[in-house]
Each structure stands twice: as C-alpha cells, then as structure tokens.
Amino acid sequence: MATLLTWLGKTDVDNMKQDKNASISAIALRGPVFDKIVILASSWEDDWFDYKDWLKKKLAVSGRPHSDISVIRARIVSPIDYSSITKVMQKKLNEVGEVSDMIYINLTSGTPAMTTISVLLGKGVGNCMFLQSSPHGDIDEVEIPVDFAAEYGRASGSGIYASIANLPKSESAFEKINATSQIMRDVIKKAQRLASSDLPALILGETGTGKEVMANAIHKASPRSGKPFRAVNCGALPESLVDSILFGHVKGAFTGAQRDHAGLFEQANGGTLFLDEVGELPLNIQVKLLRALQQKEITRVGDTAIRDIDVRIIAATHRDLFTMISSGDFREDLFYRLAVGVIHIPPLRERIDDIPDLVESLLNDINQQATTHPQFGCKKISSSAIKFTASYDWPGNIRELWNTLHRAVLWSEQEVLDGNDIKSAILSRSGSNEANAEKNSFEIPGDLSQFIDSIKKSAIESALEKSAGNKSMAARLLGLNNHQTLNNWIKSVNLEP
C-alpha cells in the first residue's frame, strides 16, 4: 500500500475555496497513485471537513483511490516549534510505516520547520520518498543527497571527547549514598543502570531509608540532570488541592484560583518528578497520573486544552502496593506502569556495615550546621558510640539515626559522644522496648542439643499422631524427603516405636 503523508498548508486551504489545486491536491492527482492520504493539520479547523470532501471529489473524478483520506489533528505548540512537530511526525511515521509498503512525504506544504523535520525523520525510513510541487503544478521526486548517519558519525567523532565531559557522572551522583555493605553496592549498581534509561522507576523501602536521596541521585546521573527535579510527598497533599498541585489550574477554576497556575508536571517538564508515598494518592488522581504516563499529556483543572509534557516519573512508597491492589485502593494498571525499574532500599538493620561511615557522614553534616550556633561546639564520636549504633535496630532507619545524633550533639556536654549519649538520645518506643527486653531476656533451658532434641521429639510425636502412625505421611508433614529420614530422627531422639 502506498501512503501520502503531508502537512496542511494555508495555500492548500485558500486554493480549495477557489476550486484550484495547490501542493497536496496536485501531488494527489498527478503524482504516484496513493491508496491512503494522511493530512496533518494544526490550524483552519473549520475548513478541514470541506477540504477533505473537496479532495475526495477531485480524486473520484480523476479515477484515483479516494476512500481513505484523513485529516489528523496535530497537537503542536506552534507551527515553528521543532520539539512538538518532531513528536507528532515521529508518531505518525511509525503508524503509517506499519501498514504501508511505500511512504511518500510532501515537502511543499507546511512551514519550514515542518519540512525540515519531515526530511530528517523521513531519511531514517527505508521505504520513504519525498515529493514536491512547483507553482505550475509540476511534481518532482526529491533526492536528498546527504547521508545523515554518516555525517553525524563524523561530527560526533570529532567532538566526542569534549562532549563526554558534559555527560552526567554516574559515580559522583551516587557518592553521597553510603554503600560499604554488599547489599547497598548491589542497589547502587541497579540504580546506576536505571539512571541511564528514561524508564519510570519505583523505589520501595521502609520510612526513613532515603528514598528521596536515591531518586535525586538517579536524576543527577541521568541525561535529564540539567533539567528540573521536583519532589512532592503525596501523603501530605490536601485532597481538595492535589489535582491542582500536580496538574495545575486556570484562573477561575475554583474559589481562590485568581490566576493560571502551572502544576508540578509542567514545572518538571524535561526533567524528573518524584512522587513520594504514591500509594496515598486518591483513585481519581491515579487515573489522571496513568494518563499522563501513557499519553504524555495533562489537562489543567478548569481547562479543556491538552498540554504535552515530557517528564520522567520516579515514585516511592513504604506501603505494600500488592495488598492495596487487592483491596482496590491502588490501580493495578498504574502499578505496572510505574514498576518498570524497581529499586528496593533495605532497612538500616540489614546494612550494618554501612552504619559506621553513615554515622561519620551525618555527624559531619550536623557539625557544619552547629558552626552557625556559637553556643554549640563540634562533636566527635567514640568507638563505643559507633559500636552501639551498629547494634541498635533503628526502626526509623536513617531518619531516626540522624535525629538521634542531632539530639546527642544538642544535649551532651562532652566533646566526644559515647554510647550512653547515643542511647539516651533515642526516643522511647514502649512496644519495641518490650520486644527488645523480651529478646534480651531469652534463655535456652539447659543444654542446647537437649533443647533441640526435645523440640524434634515433640514434632515427631505430633506428626505420627496426626498420620495415625503412617511414617510416610508423617515425614511429609515434617517436610522430610522420605520415611527413612524420619526413622533416623526417631533413633536420634531415642523415641520408642
């Protein structure tokens, strides 16, 4: 199938009203025979139907195919905006290429920007040819005598060493994240790979593990590092304003909307938007977020205009999204759209090797802040204090550790913080204290091997009782491979047959 792809020009519309040919109609009537004609239009909407009807009649009279002609709305910022023109042209070329054996692009209609983009993109399509018409109606097949790929290779080769200095440095972007432990080194490695892509990301982890720090590092190590990074805690957004804060509003959209307001999506355009605690978003906002991710477009509150956006989304949550999906509190389609690149940050209790370096780093930051207050001196930390921090569970993770160190610096009159300073600065948690006390008071009654044998013996007796003496069934209940293993257990604990 042969397809003509063209922009609609003002001359095409004006000549149609006088029943005269212009570029599109001249090519359609005198050029190759087209099975399909796709016309991209951004202006003169009132004339689209008339133009399409007029062109159909012209083609019908000449005996050419005329049943598949469409005028497509092109959502562009302006007729000279290269970015939006590129998006529209690329999308339409991909769609047309899937159903066409040959694509012809009209270079005569539309603005110079539209023609330039048509040439650049069309040269990358193997089955694409270019056509143009003269004022006298002559049709020419245009040969572009430039190999853009080769030219780009030569140009980029000469400047590659200069340009590489401006690329985001992945290592430096993550250097503020302490990663001595193997588990955190693996996390950083995954995050660095994710940063080089433009995929949505979902960061999982308990409260206080540093999800925003990780999101910021991913942004700084990405090709979007020179563009805005915006962060918002979705759980802290007032339900009545969340729509406006994320997507913006127009003047008069609601009481108090005294002027147009660009939401976070527009503020982060070209860069990254970090949605912390995304699980707290209401379902109606989840629908709009899904549309923004899929269609890359938003609509301000109170507006009808659709705005194109180019934003990378990094979301984070400490909640179990699978449970929320089951309960209907989180959309499954949104989850799978966000969870393309998933990073799980382990809690502090699982990365004990990181704690000494983390304590030193946090204390340095606190000391720098303390220099602005003459009544507080800089503090050092003893090995006993670091040993205590490594032994504590830190249920609030890095955030709790930071706050605890801050309190220790505030209250301690010593120059060097010891273990007691840190311990006394921890806020009491009655539940966890009881659990810790219970854990610390646990004792094994008697000899360890005897204790284990008594547990094993009790389990064997229960399994045999449940299976009515059937050893094969009892072995399965105990998770053993066969009844021979069970017999060995029975002998080891001196259990009577």
From TrEMBL:
Pfam families: AAA_lid_14 (PF25601), HTH_8 (PF02954), Sigma54_activat (PF00158)
UniProt keyword Nucleotide-binding, yes or no: yes
Keywords: ATP-binding, DNA-binding, Nucleotide-binding, Transcription, Transcription regulation
Transmembrane residue ranges: none
Source organism (scientific name): Photobacterium alginatilyticum
Protein name in UniProt: Sigma-54-dependent Fis family transcriptional regulator
Gene3D superfamilies to which the protein is assigned, alphabetical: 1.10.8.60, Homeodomain-like (1.10.10.60), P-loop containing nucleotide triphosphate hydrolases (3.40.50.300)
SMART domains: AAA
PANTHER family in UniProt: TRANSCRIPTIONAL ACTIVATOR ROCR, TRANSCRIPTIONAL REGULATORY PROTEIN
All residue ranges annotated as the Sigma-54 factor interaction domain in the record: 177-410
